[in-house]
Amino acid sequence: MSTMRAIVYHGPGRKAWEEVPLPTVQADTDAVVKVDTVTICGTDLHILGGDVAAVTDGRVLGHEAVGTVTEVGPGVKNVRVGDRVLVSCITACGACRYCRAGSYGQCIGGGGWILGHRIDGTQAGFVRVPFADTSTYAVPDGVTDEEVLMLADIGPTGFEVGVLNGRVSPGDVVAVVGAGPVGLSAIMGAKLFSPAHVVAIDLADARLEAAKQFGADITLNPAREDVVAVVRDLTQGLGADVAIEAVGVAATFEQCAQLVRPGGRVANVGVHGGPATLHLEDLWIRNVTITTGLVDTYSTPTLLRLLATHQVDLARFVTHRFAMGEFIEAYDTFARAADTRALKVVVTA
Ligand code: NAD
Ligand code: ZN
After folding, report:
1. Ligand 1 atom closest to 45 (CA)
2. Is the pTM of this model over 0.90?
3. What percentage of the chain has pLDDT greater than the value 70?
4. For ligand 1, is residue 183 a contact (CB within 6 Å)?
5. Given 25, 38, 131, 207, which residue has the most CB atoms within 10 angstroms?
Protein backbone atom coordinates (compact mmCIF):
# COMPACT_ATOMS: atom_id res chain seq x y z
CA MET A 1 0.00 0.00 0.00
CA SER A 2 1.61 3.26 -1.06
CA THR A 3 -1.35 5.58 -1.01
CA MET A 4 -3.79 6.81 1.60
CA ARG A 5 -6.82 9.08 1.71
CA ALA A 6 -6.60 12.67 2.85
CA ILE A 7 -8.53 15.93 2.89
CA VAL A 8 -6.86 17.90 0.10
CA TYR A 9 -7.31 21.66 -0.39
CA HIS A 10 -8.04 22.76 -3.96
CA GLY A 11 -8.47 26.50 -3.56
CA PRO A 12 -11.09 28.57 -1.71
CA GLY A 13 -14.25 26.57 -1.03
CA ARG A 14 -12.84 23.38 -2.59
CA LYS A 15 -11.67 20.31 -0.74
CA ALA A 16 -11.76 16.59 -1.50
CA TRP A 17 -11.24 13.29 0.32
CA GLU A 18 -8.86 11.72 -2.15
CA GLU A 19 -5.92 9.41 -2.73
CA VAL A 20 -2.46 10.83 -2.07
CA PRO A 21 0.97 9.20 -1.63
CA LEU A 22 1.90 7.92 1.83
CA PRO A 23 4.30 10.25 3.64
CA THR A 24 7.81 9.01 4.37
CA VAL A 25 10.70 10.14 6.55
CA GLN A 26 12.51 12.90 4.64
CA ALA A 27 14.83 14.40 7.25
CA ASP A 28 16.69 12.58 10.04
CA THR A 29 14.51 14.23 12.66
CA ASP A 30 11.15 13.29 11.07
CA ALA A 31 8.64 10.76 12.29
CA VAL A 32 5.70 9.32 10.42
CA VAL A 33 2.60 8.96 12.55
CA LYS A 34 -0.48 6.87 11.79
CA VAL A 35 -3.41 9.16 12.54
CA ASP A 36 -5.76 7.50 15.05
CA THR A 37 -7.96 10.51 15.83
CA VAL A 38 -8.04 13.89 14.12
CA THR A 39 -10.25 16.95 14.24
CA ILE A 40 -11.16 20.12 12.34
CA CYS A 41 -10.28 23.64 13.46
CA GLY A 42 -11.96 27.00 12.83
CA THR A 43 -8.69 27.83 11.08
CA ASP A 44 -9.39 25.08 8.51
CA LEU A 45 -12.65 26.91 7.78
CA HIS A 46 -10.67 30.16 7.39
CA ILE A 47 -8.34 28.37 4.95
CA LEU A 48 -11.31 27.12 2.93
CA GLY A 49 -12.69 30.66 3.03
CA GLY A 50 -9.50 31.83 1.31
CA ASP A 51 -8.19 33.72 4.38
CA VAL A 52 -4.81 31.96 4.58
CA ALA A 53 -2.93 32.62 1.34
CA ALA A 54 0.08 30.42 2.19
CA VAL A 55 -2.08 27.30 1.79
CA THR A 56 -1.80 26.23 -1.84
CA ASP A 57 -3.66 23.82 -4.13
CA GLY A 58 -2.91 20.19 -3.29
CA ARG A 59 -2.13 20.72 0.41
CA VAL A 60 -3.38 18.08 2.87
CA LEU A 61 -5.21 20.04 5.59
CA GLY A 62 -5.24 19.54 9.36
CA HIS A 63 -2.94 20.40 12.25
CA GLU A 64 -4.40 18.36 15.13
CA ALA A 65 -4.00 14.62 15.71
CA VAL A 66 -3.31 11.82 18.14
CA GLY A 67 -1.66 8.83 16.57
CA THR A 68 0.84 6.01 16.66
CA VAL A 69 4.41 6.41 15.47
CA THR A 70 5.16 4.07 12.55
CA GLU A 71 8.58 5.27 11.42
CA VAL A 72 11.32 7.51 12.82
CA GLY A 73 14.38 9.06 11.21
CA PRO A 74 17.85 8.16 12.55
CA GLY A 75 18.11 11.52 14.36
CA VAL A 76 14.97 11.04 16.47
CA LYS A 77 15.97 10.32 20.07
CA ASN A 78 12.90 10.26 22.32
CA VAL A 79 10.08 9.05 20.11
CA ARG A 80 9.88 5.37 19.18
CA VAL A 81 7.88 3.29 16.75
CA GLY A 82 4.67 2.25 18.49
CA ASP A 83 4.51 5.31 20.78
CA ARG A 84 1.11 7.02 21.14
CA VAL A 85 1.69 10.71 20.62
CA LEU A 86 -0.09 14.01 20.44
CA VAL A 87 0.84 15.74 17.18
CA SER A 88 0.87 19.43 18.10
CA CYS A 89 -0.37 22.11 15.72
CA ILE A 90 3.03 23.75 16.23
CA THR A 91 6.25 22.12 15.09
CA ALA A 92 9.44 23.24 16.83
CA CYS A 93 13.02 22.91 15.62
CA GLY A 94 13.99 23.35 19.27
CA ALA A 95 17.21 25.17 18.45
CA CYS A 96 16.44 28.54 16.86
CA ARG A 97 16.26 31.84 18.74
CA TYR A 98 12.48 31.65 19.11
CA CYS A 99 12.38 28.00 20.14
CA ARG A 100 15.08 28.69 22.75
CA ALA A 101 12.69 31.28 24.21
CA GLY A 102 9.66 28.95 24.12
CA SER A 103 8.08 30.83 21.19
CA TYR A 104 7.74 27.70 19.10
CA GLY A 105 5.00 29.24 16.96
CA GLN A 106 7.57 31.72 15.65
CA CYS A 107 10.21 29.04 14.94
CA ILE A 108 12.60 30.14 12.20
CA GLY A 109 14.39 26.80 12.02
CA GLY A 110 11.79 25.18 9.76
CA GLY A 111 8.96 24.75 12.27
CA GLY A 112 6.10 26.93 13.51
CA TRP A 113 2.59 26.35 12.21
CA ILE A 114 3.51 24.27 9.18
CA LEU A 115 1.20 21.20 9.34
CA GLY A 116 -1.79 21.67 7.06
CA HIS A 117 -0.38 25.08 6.15
CA ARG A 118 3.08 24.93 4.54
CA ILE A 119 3.43 21.13 4.54
CA ASP A 120 0.88 18.31 4.39
CA GLY A 121 -1.20 17.93 7.55
CA THR A 122 -3.04 15.49 9.74
CA GLN A 123 -6.43 15.01 8.04
CA ALA A 124 -5.11 11.83 6.47
CA GLY A 125 -4.25 8.23 7.22
CA PHE A 126 -0.65 9.17 8.06
CA VAL A 127 1.31 12.38 8.63
CA ARG A 128 5.00 13.25 8.47
CA VAL A 129 5.97 15.20 11.59
CA PRO A 130 9.25 17.16 11.34
CA PHE A 131 11.39 17.62 14.48
CA ALA A 132 9.46 14.76 16.08
CA ASP A 133 11.28 14.98 19.44
CA THR A 134 10.18 18.57 20.05
CA SER A 135 6.87 18.53 18.17
CA THR A 136 5.07 15.55 19.71
CA TYR A 137 4.02 14.73 23.27
CA ALA A 138 3.57 11.31 24.81
CA VAL A 139 -0.07 10.53 25.62
CA PRO A 140 -0.27 10.12 29.43
CA ASP A 141 -1.81 7.03 30.99
CA GLY A 142 -5.43 7.20 32.07
CA VAL A 143 -6.66 9.70 29.49
CA THR A 144 -8.35 9.11 26.16
CA ASP A 145 -6.99 9.99 22.72
CA GLU A 146 -9.99 12.29 22.26
CA GLU A 147 -9.20 14.30 25.38
CA VAL A 148 -5.56 14.67 24.40
CA LEU A 149 -6.58 15.66 20.86
CA MET A 150 -8.15 18.79 22.37
CA LEU A 151 -4.62 19.86 23.30
CA ALA A 152 -3.27 19.76 19.75
CA ASP A 153 -4.50 23.31 19.22
CA ILE A 154 -7.60 24.66 20.96
CA GLY A 155 -6.43 23.95 24.54
CA PRO A 156 -3.11 25.81 24.33
CA THR A 157 -4.53 28.44 21.96
CA GLY A 158 -7.32 29.57 24.28
CA PHE A 159 -5.01 29.36 27.28
CA GLU A 160 -1.87 31.04 25.90
CA VAL A 161 -3.15 33.50 23.30
CA GLY A 162 -6.35 34.33 25.18
CA VAL A 163 -5.96 33.83 28.94
CA LEU A 164 -2.21 34.25 29.50
CA ASN A 165 -1.66 36.99 26.90
CA GLY A 166 -4.70 38.75 28.38
CA ARG A 167 -3.17 38.31 31.87
CA VAL A 168 -6.45 37.09 33.36
CA SER A 169 -6.22 37.51 37.13
CA PRO A 170 -8.40 36.63 40.14
CA GLY A 171 -11.46 38.87 40.34
CA ASP A 172 -11.30 39.97 36.70
CA VAL A 173 -14.30 40.45 34.48
CA VAL A 174 -13.40 38.54 31.33
CA ALA A 175 -15.35 38.97 28.08
CA VAL A 176 -14.86 36.26 25.49
CA VAL A 177 -16.15 37.15 22.04
CA GLY A 178 -16.73 33.98 20.02
CA ALA A 179 -17.70 30.81 21.87
CA GLY A 180 -16.41 28.28 19.38
CA PRO A 181 -13.97 25.64 20.62
CA VAL A 182 -11.20 28.23 20.98
CA GLY A 183 -13.39 30.70 22.88
CA LEU A 184 -14.67 27.87 25.09
CA SER A 185 -11.11 26.82 25.76
CA ALA A 186 -10.35 30.41 26.79
CA ILE A 187 -13.36 30.31 29.14
CA MET A 188 -12.13 27.04 30.64
CA GLY A 189 -8.62 28.45 31.05
CA ALA A 190 -9.87 31.74 32.53
CA LYS A 191 -11.80 29.80 35.19
CA LEU A 192 -8.49 28.45 36.52
CA PHE A 193 -7.80 32.02 37.71
CA SER A 194 -11.10 32.57 39.57
CA PRO A 195 -12.45 35.53 37.60
CA ALA A 196 -15.37 37.52 39.05
CA HIS A 197 -17.40 37.09 35.85
CA VAL A 198 -16.91 35.41 32.51
CA VAL A 199 -19.11 36.96 29.83
CA ALA A 200 -19.47 34.91 26.64
CA ILE A 201 -20.62 36.65 23.46
CA ASP A 202 -21.66 34.79 20.32
CA LEU A 203 -24.25 35.04 17.54
CA ALA A 204 -25.13 31.35 17.88
CA ASP A 205 -27.35 30.47 20.84
CA ALA A 206 -26.12 26.87 20.74
CA ARG A 207 -22.59 28.14 21.36
CA LEU A 208 -23.82 30.37 24.20
CA GLU A 209 -25.41 27.36 25.87
CA ALA A 210 -22.10 25.54 25.57
CA ALA A 211 -20.36 28.57 27.07
CA LYS A 212 -22.57 28.25 30.18
CA GLN A 213 -21.48 24.63 30.53
CA PHE A 214 -17.84 25.65 30.25
CA GLY A 215 -18.22 28.17 33.06
CA ALA A 216 -19.46 31.46 31.59
CA ASP A 217 -21.91 33.06 34.04
CA ILE A 218 -23.27 35.64 31.58
CA THR A 219 -24.03 34.96 27.91
CA LEU A 220 -24.93 37.64 25.39
CA ASN A 221 -26.07 37.48 21.79
CA PRO A 222 -25.14 40.70 19.93
CA ALA A 223 -28.06 40.09 17.55
CA ARG A 224 -30.39 40.80 20.48
CA GLU A 225 -28.38 42.66 23.12
CA ASP A 226 -26.18 45.73 23.37
CA VAL A 227 -23.20 43.82 24.68
CA VAL A 228 -21.05 46.88 25.36
CA ALA A 229 -23.83 48.42 27.50
CA VAL A 230 -24.36 45.20 29.48
CA VAL A 231 -20.63 44.81 30.21
CA ARG A 232 -20.36 48.46 31.28
CA ASP A 233 -23.37 48.02 33.62
CA LEU A 234 -21.63 45.04 35.15
CA THR A 235 -18.40 46.97 35.76
CA GLN A 236 -19.49 50.36 37.15
CA GLY A 237 -19.30 51.79 33.65
CA LEU A 238 -15.66 50.80 33.14
CA GLY A 239 -15.64 47.77 30.87
CA ALA A 240 -14.07 44.33 31.07
CA ASP A 241 -10.60 43.80 32.50
CA VAL A 242 -9.85 41.44 29.64
CA ALA A 243 -11.57 41.05 26.26
CA ILE A 244 -10.63 37.96 24.28
CA GLU A 245 -11.33 37.96 20.53
CA ALA A 246 -11.94 34.38 19.36
CA VAL A 247 -13.75 34.84 16.05
CA GLY A 248 -11.37 36.41 13.52
CA VAL A 249 -13.42 39.17 11.87
CA ALA A 250 -13.02 42.95 12.05
CA ALA A 251 -16.32 43.53 13.86
CA THR A 252 -15.38 41.38 16.84
CA PHE A 253 -11.89 42.84 17.18
CA GLU A 254 -13.38 46.34 17.16
CA GLN A 255 -16.00 45.20 19.67
CA CYS A 256 -13.28 43.93 22.02
CA ALA A 257 -11.62 47.36 21.90
CA GLN A 258 -14.97 48.84 22.99
CA LEU A 259 -15.56 46.24 25.68
CA VAL A 260 -12.29 46.70 27.54
CA ARG A 261 -11.84 49.07 30.49
CA PRO A 262 -9.11 51.73 30.66
CA GLY A 263 -5.96 49.86 31.62
CA GLY A 264 -7.42 46.57 30.39
CA ARG A 265 -6.17 44.04 27.91
CA VAL A 266 -7.50 42.95 24.51
CA ALA A 267 -6.15 39.54 23.54
CA ASN A 268 -6.71 38.76 19.88
CA VAL A 269 -6.86 35.05 19.13
CA GLY A 270 -8.86 34.96 15.89
CA VAL A 271 -7.24 34.39 12.50
CA HIS A 272 -8.04 37.46 10.42
CA GLY A 273 -8.28 37.44 6.64
CA GLY A 274 -8.74 41.19 6.31
CA PRO A 275 -7.95 44.47 8.08
CA ALA A 276 -9.74 45.77 11.16
CA THR A 277 -9.93 49.38 12.28
CA LEU A 278 -7.83 50.32 15.27
CA HIS A 279 -9.63 53.29 16.81
CA LEU A 280 -6.50 54.87 18.17
CA GLU A 281 -8.36 58.17 18.50
CA ASP A 282 -10.36 56.53 21.33
CA LEU A 283 -7.76 54.11 22.62
CA TRP A 284 -4.61 56.24 22.95
CA ILE A 285 -5.76 57.77 26.22
CA ARG A 286 -7.08 54.56 27.79
CA ASN A 287 -3.87 52.60 28.52
CA VAL A 288 -5.20 49.59 26.70
CA THR A 289 -2.86 46.71 25.90
CA ILE A 290 -3.56 44.76 22.73
CA THR A 291 -1.87 41.42 22.18
CA THR A 292 -1.81 39.24 19.09
CA GLY A 293 -0.44 35.79 18.73
CA LEU A 294 -0.07 32.50 17.06
CA VAL A 295 -0.15 29.76 19.67
CA ASP A 296 3.30 28.60 20.82
CA THR A 297 2.14 25.45 22.63
CA TYR A 298 4.60 26.07 25.49
CA SER A 299 1.67 25.31 27.84
CA THR A 300 0.96 21.85 26.39
CA PRO A 301 2.84 19.95 29.14
CA THR A 302 0.99 21.98 31.80
CA LEU A 303 -2.37 21.29 30.18
CA LEU A 304 -1.54 17.58 29.89
CA ARG A 305 -0.93 17.56 33.66
CA LEU A 306 -4.18 19.41 34.33
CA LEU A 307 -5.96 16.84 32.15
CA ALA A 308 -4.31 13.84 33.79
CA THR A 309 -5.27 15.15 37.26
CA HIS A 310 -8.82 16.05 36.16
CA GLN A 311 -8.46 19.80 36.73
CA VAL A 312 -9.91 20.40 33.26
CA ASP A 313 -12.61 18.43 31.45
CA LEU A 314 -11.68 18.21 27.78
CA ALA A 315 -14.07 15.37 26.89
CA ARG A 316 -16.98 17.81 26.86
CA PHE A 317 -15.62 19.48 23.72
CA VAL A 318 -16.39 16.39 21.64
CA THR A 319 -19.92 16.54 20.27
CA HIS A 320 -19.74 14.49 17.08
CA ARG A 321 -17.80 11.43 15.98
CA PHE A 322 -17.13 10.20 12.45
CA ALA A 323 -15.13 7.52 10.69
CA MET A 324 -12.40 8.66 8.28
CA GLY A 325 -14.57 7.78 5.29
CA GLU A 326 -17.11 10.34 6.54
CA PHE A 327 -14.62 13.23 6.65
CA ILE A 328 -16.58 15.49 4.29
CA GLU A 329 -19.66 15.00 6.49
CA ALA A 330 -17.56 15.91 9.53
CA TYR A 331 -16.55 19.17 7.83
CA ASP A 332 -20.15 19.92 6.97
CA THR A 333 -21.25 19.29 10.55
CA PHE A 334 -18.51 21.54 11.97
CA ALA A 335 -19.12 24.32 9.43
CA ARG A 336 -22.84 24.39 10.30
CA ALA A 337 -22.23 24.49 14.04
CA ALA A 338 -25.08 26.90 14.74
CA ASP A 339 -27.51 24.25 13.45
CA THR A 340 -25.69 21.05 14.35
CA ARG A 341 -24.53 22.30 17.80
CA ALA A 342 -21.08 20.95 16.97
CA LEU A 343 -18.11 21.93 19.11
CA LYS A 344 -15.30 19.58 18.16
CA VAL A 345 -15.93 16.82 15.66
CA VAL A 346 -13.61 13.86 16.08
CA VAL A 347 -12.71 11.67 13.11
CA THR A 348 -11.35 8.25 14.00
CA ALA A 349 -9.42 5.83 11.81
P1 NAD B 1 -15.37 28.59 15.18
O2 NAD B 1 -15.61 29.02 13.78
O3 NAD B 1 -15.87 27.24 15.60
O4 NAD B 1 -15.98 29.64 16.22
C5 NAD B 1 -16.17 30.99 15.95
C6 NAD B 1 -17.40 31.47 16.72
O7 NAD B 1 -17.58 32.87 16.48
C8 NAD B 1 -18.70 30.77 16.32
O9 NAD B 1 -19.33 30.24 17.47
C10 NAD B 1 -19.53 31.90 15.69
O11 NAD B 1 -20.92 31.76 15.94
C12 NAD B 1 -18.97 33.12 16.39
N13 NAD B 1 -19.16 34.39 15.67
C14 NAD B 1 -19.06 34.62 14.34
N15 NAD B 1 -19.28 35.93 14.10
C16 NAD B 1 -19.51 36.53 15.29
C17 NAD B 1 -19.80 37.86 15.69
N18 NAD B 1 -19.88 38.86 14.79
N19 NAD B 1 -19.97 38.10 17.01
C20 NAD B 1 -19.89 37.11 17.93
N21 NAD B 1 -19.62 35.83 17.60
C22 NAD B 1 -19.44 35.54 16.29
O23 NAD B 1 -13.79 28.70 15.39
P24 NAD B 1 -12.80 28.20 16.56
O25 NAD B 1 -12.25 26.87 16.19
O26 NAD B 1 -13.41 28.36 17.89
O27 NAD B 1 -11.64 29.27 16.34
C28 NAD B 1 -11.88 30.63 16.70
C29 NAD B 1 -10.85 31.53 16.04
O30 NAD B 1 -9.53 31.22 16.57
C31 NAD B 1 -10.74 31.34 14.53
O32 NAD B 1 -10.52 32.60 13.93
C33 NAD B 1 -9.52 30.47 14.40
O34 NAD B 1 -8.95 30.58 13.12
C35 NAD B 1 -8.65 31.07 15.47
N36 NAD B 1 -7.48 30.29 15.91
C37 NAD B 1 -6.37 31.00 16.20
C38 NAD B 1 -5.23 30.36 16.62
C39 NAD B 1 -4.02 31.16 17.01
O40 NAD B 1 -2.96 30.55 17.18
N41 NAD B 1 -4.11 32.46 17.15
C42 NAD B 1 -5.22 28.97 16.74
C43 NAD B 1 -6.39 28.26 16.46
C44 NAD B 1 -7.53 28.93 16.05
ZN1 ZN C 1 12.74 26.91 16.08
Report:
1. 2
2. yes
3. 100
4. yes
5. 38
